[in-house]
Amino acid sequence: MSPEPATVLVVDDERDVADAYAAQLEEEFIVMTAYGGQQALDWIDASVDVVLLDRRMPDISGDEVLEKIHGRDLQARVAMVTAVDPDFDIID
């Protein structure tokens, strides 16, 4: 019996971007898609293995979402993504 695929939570306020990530991932992973930071925080729990997290969202920034995920002591790995040129904000 093969192991259950990892659960990936895709978080991006731009629906087309989030849906594109989800479409690429859904063949190999269980994918949940949240269209904002608050929705992501409402959905994330210990069943989520990986979070693909937009850094800049209007409701709650990806940085704030990441901080709250760590505050809940969840073990999910987080990959931050952004469409902003990294030269402007590579180090906070």
Characterize this entry briefly.
This protein is of the alpha/beta class. The protein contains three helices and four strands. Helix 2 runs parallel beside helix 3.
Tally of helical segments: 3
Helix proportion of residues, in percent?
25-40%
Determine and state the CATH class.
Alpha Beta
- Between the first and last Cα atoms, what is the distance in angstroms? 44 Å
Q: Which range does the strand content fall in?
A: 15-25%
Strand neighbour order, sheet with most strands: 2-1-3-4
- Helix-strand category: alpha/beta
CATH architecture: 3-Layer(aba) Sandwich
Q: Could you name the CATH topology? A: Rossmann fold
CATH superfamily: Response regulator
Q: What is Rg?
A: 13 Å
The major beta sheet can be summarized as: 4 strands, parallel
Q: What sequence of helices (H) and strands (E) makes up the elements?
A: EHEHEHE
User: Could you list the spans in which at least 5 consecutive residues all have pLDDT below 50?
Assistant: none
Shape verdict: globular
Give an overview in words.
The chain is an alpha/beta fold and 92 residues long. The chain has a single domain, classed as 3-Layer(aba) Sandwich (Rossmann fold), CATH 3.40.50. Helix content is 30%, strand content 22%. It contains 3 helices and 4 strands. The chain has helices at 15-25, 37-43, 62-71, and strands spanning 7-11, 30-34, 50-54, 77-81. It has a 4-stranded parallel sheet, with helices on both faces. Helix 1 links the parallel strand 1 (7-11) and strand 2 (30-34). The termini are far apart. The model has no long low-confidence stretch (mean pLDDT 91).
